[in-house]
Write a structure and sequence with these properties.
By secondary structure, the protein is of the alpha+beta class. It is built from 3 helices and 5 strands. The structure holds FE2/S2 (inorganic) cluster (FES). The site of FE2/S2 (inorganic) cluster has 13 residues, from loops.
């Protein structure tokens, strides 16, 4: 699926994401700044924090308890905040837009 990553300054990067990878891995693999992934995807650093559009957020499975606890600690949580490493790409995500927080630059 094609996923668009939008930086805090509005620059957008559309990338082809591999099904089964997660949003943090997709960002790193494509050299996209704004998602750091310092813990390697073990849900313990929150440097892969991102914001989804409401419609995309709504069609994903709800975040796990551990992910919600990590999201409580991020700098600027939104209603549609997710940890990129906990969102696994599937074919239905074509067209998804992922916004990256200014605090990760
Ligand atoms: Fe550390 Fe996602 S990469 S919480």
């Amino acid at each position: 699926p094609l996923i668009t990553f939008v930086a805090h300054d509005g620059s957008a990067y559309e990338v082809e994401a591999a099904t089964g990878s997660n949003l943090m891995q997709v960002a790193l693999a494509n050299g996209i700044d704004g998602i750091l992934g310092e813990c390697g995807g073990s849900c313990s650093c929150a440097t892969c924090h991102c914001y989804l559009d409401e419609k995309d957020y709504a069609r994903l499975e709800a975040p796990s308890r551990i992910e919600r606890e990590m999201l409580d600690c991020v700098a600027e949580p939104h209603a549609t905040s997710r940890l990129g490493c906990q969102v696994v790409v599937n074919a239905e995500m074509d067209g998804m837009v992922v916004h990256m927080p200014a605090s990760q630059y």
